[in-house]
Design a protein that fits this description.
The chain is α/β, with parallel strands linked by helices. The protein contains ten helices and nine strands.
Length: 300
């Protein structure tokens, strides 16, 4: 785990989240890899390989797609975050010349040529054609790897997106939903509690906000999307960081602390998150937080 450099933004409003490009890079370089064991476990269970066509909803900066593409799968990703999507393009769609060579003269990895990225978010069921494959084929696997069950309403809009995805998937295709595990199995839930406490000052009475991780609602989302559950699993995904500074940047890149930043300021949030991380700091300065995530496999 190697710490990365971060630019200072002295003239940015302190009650605003970090600049989008910086935060997206923090996500790609620090935080996204924490869920890699989840991606691998799902792909192993479903035997993802060269014959698999994968649609990744909320693909972020593309790590899950890259893992699938390395197995030979054809991958399509869609996301609302244009900064993360730009990083995914850099990973999966390197510019190539007529002979397939990139700007540096090296040939693009063949797995990356099987990738496609869609800008514009997650359409509703009426817009499912936006996911269509150019060759008219149907998807074998649909994934929603952004875990739900951490913030109130974090599954909103997921069911319509899944309906759209299923409309362009083959009959019997697998659909995978993911969620946070129980709080007693997720050390990070204690740190995420900082976001809820700091955001209280700006929250209207009775308004929804971050909630304790009680249940992930995967079955409820599946039912709303008309999917049939067909097994589940739990995966250990420890969050490990080179130092406290990297941990703070990685966690804030998730967007789960944005309300807290607006209610106070970035310095206050960073300070309190760093303090909450203290029990997980090891003698060598690294930060280690055990977590468990759950996935639900459904049939379209």
């Amino acid at each position: 785990m190697t710490p990365t450099l971060v630019r200072n933004h002295r003239d940015v409003e302190p009650s605003a989240p970090a600049e989008a490009g910086v935060r997206a890079r923090d996500w790609a370089e620090i935080q996204e890899r924490m869920l890699a064991p989840l991606y691998e476990a799902v792909y192993d269970r479903l035997e993802v390989g060269a014959a698999t066509r994968v649609l990744s909803l909320g693909c972020g900066s593309g790590l899950a797609m890259l893992v699938a593409a390395a197995r030979g799968a054809h991958v399509t990703g869609v996301d609302t975050d244009r900064e993360r999507l730009a990083l995914a393009r850099a990973r999966l769609l390197p510019e190539a010349g007529r002979d397939g060579a990139g700007r540096d003269g090296r040939r693009a990895h063949p797995a990356r040529s099987r990738a496609r990225l869609l800008d514009g978010g997650l359409p509703g069921a009426a817009d499912g054609a936006a996911y269509d494959l150019a060759d008219g084929a149907a998807y074998d696997l649909v994934t929603a790897f952004e875990p739900i069950g951490c913030a109130a309403g974090d599954s909103a809009g997921l069911a319509p997106a899944l309906e759209s995805a299923v409309a362009v998937s083959r009959r019997g295709a697998a659909v995978v939903l993911t969620g946070w595990g129980p709080p007693e199995r997720c050390a990070t839930s204690e740190v995420l509690g900082v976001a809820n406490r700091l955001a209280e000052a700006a929250r209207e009475p009775g308004a929804g906000g971050r909630r304790p991780v009680l249940r992930d609602e995967l079955e409820d989302v599946a039912a709303r999307a008309g999917l049939k559950p067909d097994g589940s699993g739990r995966v250990s995904c420890p969050f490990g960081y080179a130092d406290t500074g990297s941990a703070v940047r990685g966690l804030l890149s998730t967007g789960l602390f944005d309300a807290a930043v607006h209610a106070t300021d970035r310095c206050q949030v960073e300070k309190e998150v760093a303090e909450a991380l203290h029990p997980y700091r090891r003698r060598d300065g690294t930060v280690w937080m055990p977590n468990v995530f759950r996935y639900l496999v459904c049939t379209a």
